[in-house]
Specification:
With about 400 residues, this protein is an alpha/beta fold. It has 3 domains: about 170 residues, 3-Layer(bba) Sandwich (FAD/NAD(P)-binding domain), CATH 3.50.50.60; about 120 residues, 3-Layer(bba) Sandwich (FAD/NAD(P)-binding domain), CATH 3.50.50; about 70 residues, Enolase-like, domain 1 (2-Layer Sandwich), CATH 3.30.390. It contains 8 helices and 25 strands. Strands 1, 2, 3, 4, 5, 6 and 18 form a 7-stranded mixed sheet that branches. Strands 8-15-9-10-11 form a 5-stranded parallel sheet. A 5-stranded antiparallel sheet has the order 21-22-25-24-23. The protein is globular, with a radius of gyration of 22 Å.
Amino acid sequence: MLSYKYLIIGGAMTSSAAIDGIRSIDEDGSIGIISEEEYKPYERPPLTKGLWHETKLDSIFLEFNNTNIEFYLNTKATKIDAKKKNVTDNKGQQYKYTKLLLATGASPKIISKESDRVIYYRYLRDYKKLRKLTEKYSTFGIIGGGFIGSEIAAALASLGKKVTMIFPEEGIGGLRFPEELAIYLNRYYEDNGVVVHPRTKVETVGEKNNRVIIKTDKGEFSYDAVIVGIGVSPNTDLAQSIGVKIDDGIKVDEYLRTSEADIYAAGDVTSFYSPDLDRSIRVEHEDNAYEQGKLAGKNMAGALKKYDHLPFFYSDLFDYGYEAVGILNPKLEVIEDWRDEYEEGIIYYLQNGIVVGVLLWNVWDQLDNARELIAGKKKLQKEELLGYLPK
């Protein structure tokens, strides 16, 4: 049996941050990482952004102090014995641990597995596969109008590919943006060469006559390849198998500890309490992966620090870019403060008159102020919010 002071299940950005956190306190304690991926930790955002432009592939791999660290790649943890404090993998290997971190992430939601040219885009292998397909094919269908769909559509269109987006919402980003902005983005993407099919529900996806066929409630579409980005589900099965508490993810306390002794969790899989929002949330973005992973590592190594960070997220949509914090739900009360409509402005999301989310549209260097506004929990009228944050 292998033995480690710190054992991490999952090998993505959260794990890399956890290693940094551990090493900031414990310089040489043994660390083992069990990862289903074939690569050591890398930055995930460039998969839909920079790698399609000027970012070099080698530059996305993360650097960390690798003293006394062992990676077990292409390996799946299949069993945890919390009492004996050991983990078994799919090859029968066992690992003893003193502290365990569950950084198991999330998996894409699946429509169909009938075609090799349907990509559920999330990992480096998916980027490499899609990049090869772009060398051979010209027409690409994208299912989903969220982060993955909008970013990949922009990337492929920038390569001169014929791109179509299919999604059930009124507009691109419709689950986060006010309806008018989402509908404007439909026109903006069409102006940039992307065919947009909003209010369209996908029924089946399959392959026929060397084409990928998408059947929808509005007809049938045919492409050389299809990219699916319809959300993810947290990988909680392993945690559930040992009775760890689950709440839209692995539930952790303010120190990122699960309900089982000496087992921590961080990253996409984690449901945690946000004091700024006064509720439990789960965040699937880079900032949370780094900040939460790093603090989990520190706490595993003996620190006792609370996770009170409100993560931000961001995206690039052709020439537009945005940063945001908190809850972006267009069903909430929305107050828009544009300097130039749809070009530059700030959108506030309120619940019971209190700001719970801020979208900074082509506005930069205001994240800390946005966090402070949310943390203040003050009831504000529209007149008070207009001009509240500088644009």
